[in-house]
Specification:
Blueprint lengths: L1 H13 L14 E6 L4 H20 L11 H8 L5 E6 H6 L1 H7 L3 E3 L7 H9 L4 E3 L21 E5 L1 E2 L10 H5 L3 E2 L2 H13 L4 E5 L7 E3 L5 E3 H11 L4 E5 L8 H9 L6 E3 L7 H6 L6 H14 L4 E8 L6 H14 L3 E6 L7 H5 L6 H24 L5 E9 L6 E5 L5 E5 L8 E9 L4 E8 L2
Parallel strand pairs: 1-2, 2-3, 3-4, 5-8, 8-11, 12-13, 13-14, 17-19
Antiparallel strand pairs: 6-7, 9-10, 15-16, 15-18, 16-17, 18-19
Length: about 450
């Protein structure tokens, strides 16, 4: 989501005739796009701010803005260090503190990106500037993102915000309430990726399953409808989506996925815990049995699908029995992949106010290591089942360990490494899988695809 948002901001900045630079030391303006989902994410930003403050003290500006913005150039030329700002969820959560403590020049929340040129102008005039007002309508649907870097996989946000209010989660407070983009703007962005040579698009939302756009003529497009429309519009592109909320994953969506070959058979379905007691405390609006029902539906309708999840340990009042229930659910589902964390309390959430963080850090780490060890076993078992199969791979890059090898992903999101054999990034190829580890498949080219 932050990649997608950064590309929106880049497009907005380019309306001021600013140009992107890959060289931090040449930058006149530095913008950090931030995340608040976990404490570690904010710590990373704080370390980055320390680096930039040191850079600010010794760097001089080398303005790269065009002659059409002479007044802006004249302001920049009088400065001896970059202007820098903080945007995104951490900006929304901390607001004025970022200016007071970290001396940033401007702060913009996730719904205030269109105001960045104005905030920048204030900063250039020596005034600290901030806009963290949330919106119930802003989706940036009229902004065509400026793609950053060279890639074959692009991201398109189909909605913003979240209405779920899980007790541990800061997202509804930093990104606002849920709203869906119009279908036409989504298609325009997907076609733009196709025109620029992208081979894969991922549709993004905090909970894509609840996407629902109501047009002026009264017609309603739900997420399954949108998937059908996008997959039909770009049949030569792979289409993925993330993330799905279990309570809203309906059979209709799975049936659309089964209908289109270019809809990748991978579903990320965060479970968070296997204990009904903990799920209720988290305000996750499903039970263990309901989650397993959705897993059964995936296997029934999409028998080749891989399933990923999010799971974390150490939430309020989590007992050893609750941990065991999480482990048993992981075994029962046999997740192909998982993002695994220990609970970190987020300021402003219901849990922070009402559910004490009462599992020790040492015990959280022990439980997390237990979860990781089990998932490594499950991932290895999943990958070993691929040995001997021939799979279609989209080549994504050159192996860091061996320049004579390339890597890519299957539609089930499994990473495959194989000899380059004249392959270029962005090509599809059939690869026979020869061996597997918990993280990677290795193989050889079996057939070149058109």
């Amino acid at each position: 989501m932050n990649v997608a948002d950064s590309e929106v901001v880049a497009a907005i900045m380019q309306t001021t005739d600013a140009e992107l630079t890959d060289n931090l030391h040449e930058a006149d303006i530095i913008i950090l796009n931030t995340c608040s989902i976990r404490d570690k994410a904010e710590q990373t930003v704080q370390h980055r701010l320390q680096e930039i403050q040191a850079l600010r003290k010794k760097n001089t500006l080398h303005s790269k803005l065009s002659n059409e913005t002479a007044s802006l150039n004249s302001k920049l030329s009088t400065l001896n260090s970059p202007i820098y700002g903080i945007i995104g969820c951490m900006a929304e959560r901390m607001g004025q503190e970022l200016i007071d403590k970290w001396k940033v020049d401007f702060v913009a929340g996730p719904d205030a990106y269109l105001d960045i040129p104005n905030l920048l102008a204030q900063a250039l005039n020596g005034h600290k500037a901030i806009n963290i007002q949330l919106s119930t309508t802003e989706t940036y649907s009229h902004i065509l993102p400026s793609r950053i870097g060279k890639s074959i996989s692009g991201f398109v946000s189909i909605m913003r915000g979240c209405n779920n209010f899980c007790s541990y989660c800061v997202v509804p407070y930093t990104r606002g309430r849920e709203r869906s983009r119009d279908v036409e703007s989504i298609l325009n962005e997907v076609h733009d990726l196709e025109t620029k040579g992208y081979k894969e698009v991922t549709l993004l939302g905090q909970n894509v399953n609840s996407y629902c756009y109501k047009a002026e003529d009264g017609s309603v497009t739900d997420f399954a409808d949108l998937l059908d429309i996008v997959a039909s519009a770009v049949p030569m592109m792979r289409v993925r989506f993330t993330t799905s909320n279990p309570e809203d994953m309906v059979d209709k969506t799975l049936e659309v996925m089964a209908k289109h070959d270019n809809l990748c058979k991978f579903i990320h379905l965060p479970v968070q815990s296997g204990s009904d007691k903990i799920l209720k405390l988290m305000n996750r609006k499903y039970t263990r049995a309901q989650y397993l029902n959705r897993i059964e539906a995936i296997h029934r309708i999409l028998p080749t699908a891989a399933i990923g999840t999010d799971v974390f340990c150490g939430f309020h009042d989590e007992s050893l029995e609750d941990q065991d229930q999480t482990l048993s659910l992981m075994r029962e589902v046999g997740f192909d992949t998982a993002f695994m964390f220990k609970y970190s309390e987020r300021p402003g959430t219901f849990a922070q106010k009402h559910l004490p963080d009462n599992v020790s850090e040492k015990e959280k780490i022990r439980r997390l290591n237990e979860i990781i060890a089990l998932q490594n076993e499950l991932s290895l078992q999943s990958n070993q089942r691929e040995v001997g199969k021939t799979v279609e791979v989209l080549v994504e890059g050159i192996s860091k360990r061996n320049p004579n090898e390339v890597f890519g992903r299957t539609e089930q999101y499994k990473t495959v490494v194989f000899p380059r054999g004249g392959m270029s990034i962005g090509q599809f190829v059939k690869v026979k899988v020869l061996e597997a580890s918990a993280a990677t498949l290795r193989g050889e080219i079996a057939e070149f695809c058109k």
